[in-house]
Amino acid sequence: MSKKPDIEKNESTEEKIKEAARAVFTRKGYAATRTRDIAEESGYNLALINYYFRSKEKLYDIIMLEHLQTFLHSIMDILNDADTTLFQKIEVLVGHYIDMLIKNPALPLFIINAVNADPDKLITGIGADKIHQENLVIVKQWKEVAAAKKLAIHPVHIMMNMVSLTIFPFMGSPLIRNRTKLSIEEFNALMLERKKLIPVWIKAILNAEV
Amino acid sequence: MSKKPDIEKNESTEEKIKEAARAVFTRKGYAATRTRDIAEESGYNLALINYYFRSKEKLYDIIMLEHLQTFLHSIMDILNDADTTLFQKIEVLVGHYIDMLIKNPALPLFIINAVNADPDKLITGIGADKIHQENLVIVKQWKEVAAAKKLAIHPVHIMMNMVSLTIFPFMGSPLIRNRTKLSIEEFNALMLERKKLIPVWIKAILNAEV
DNA sequence: GTCTATATACGGATAGAC
DNA sequence: GTCTATCCGTATATAGAC
């Protein structure tokens, strides 16, 4: 056996601080979190934050990029899958995001605020160039469908609809839950329903008379 | 004529500071704005902020409540209008909000962040009690439609859909505009299209086979 | 690596001159 | 009412002991 201690399951101090930072930054945003909050949440001393991460901002950047990665993870594979139809992609995409958002409901607000605070930083970090490729499989498939249906509406409407219907309820959940008196479990159950519903609705929207 | 000076069109110092505060708070949020930013934006000195508003937080509260009022202004009248049908209400509501959001696109993010930072403060300030009344005209109308259509889906889905489709694109606009290379004018034109489209889509959703 | 103590900077607020 | 100068708490960051 190696010399690694059998308390190996405990993460390193560095990792614990990062987790604490993720928790606090995600909840309160950059400006409102104090390094002291992170230290307290981690169980370690304030000085260790700088020892491991040099500065609050560097630590924040790490968390931000990780969140971005979580948010975009595997989406390119879905968008570029030659073996699925457009509507299958929509189903997979919506399902993927709802599962992810139930685990991580604060993510969209965090990311939108980050983009708002410093658009360039995020948008370049996004690897966004790749995403806008005109030769993504989904874009080609979309063009075929649009041509077949002789759609008069701008394609970004459909994209916005899909994203809006999927993501917004999570951003509004504090207000929605307060107004509706739904528990978190009931709310999440509704979100899971939307995995089936949103693709159906998107189809209905595409077929709607305008 | 009165003794008022003919430079009357210039607002008072107090009002100018409030406008500056509105601009900065709305753009950067509470924690990230410094009173010095507001002073600079207003053209006046830092000390005057405290002279007129006592503290950063009191000034923020004023801005926040004004924004909330803008956001909810006249919505109760629409919701409670006995002379319009349910779908007319949806049309009016969506149109009202899109017009308002084109003028004030940063509002939803500001409000959601405010709710997030301090749920109780906002939710009580909202006069939220009134909004949840079961005897609003729109609620009654909704129940009739739901009964007639024997809808299997939870009514909050429909509410979430309407709000999501209307509001989210504005919150995501920095990212959307970057990805699509749309100008602000083009983006706003799309939003205006949605005044007609969203009600149609809501109907389509209501009639969709599930 | 982890702590305590401290340097240094920044931001909100006020005193006091004009 | 408006300004300059300054106070003082708080937050980030670092020095240095263990």
Describe, in plain words, how this protein is organized in 3D.
2 copies of one chain form a homodimer. With 210 residues, chain A is an all-alpha fold. The relative contact order of chain A is 0.09. The longest helix of chain A is centred in the last third of the chain and has 24 residues, at 184-207. The model of chain A is unreliable at 1-8 (pLDDT under 50). Helix content of chain A is 76%, strand content 0%.
Greatest interface and its residue counts?
Answer: A-B, 51 and 51 residues
Portion in helices of chain A: over 70%
What Rg of chain A is obtained from the alpha carbons, in whole angstroms? 21 Å
What ranges of chain A have pLDDT less than 50 throughout 5 or more consecutive residues? Answer: 1-8
Rounded mean pLDDT of chain A is: 91
Counted by DSSP, the helix tally of chain A is: 13
- The percent range for strand residues of chain A is under 5%
How many DSSP-defined strands of chain A?
0
H-E string of chain A: HHHHHHHHHHHHH
What structural class do the secondary elements of chain A suggest? Answer: mainly alpha
* Sheet of most strands of chain A: none
Task: Sum up the overall morphology of chain A in one term.
Answer: globular
Multimeric state: homodimer
**Cα end-to-end separation of chain A:** 70 Å
In summary, what is this structure?
2 copies of one chain form a homodimer. With about 210 residues, chain A is mainly alpha-helical.
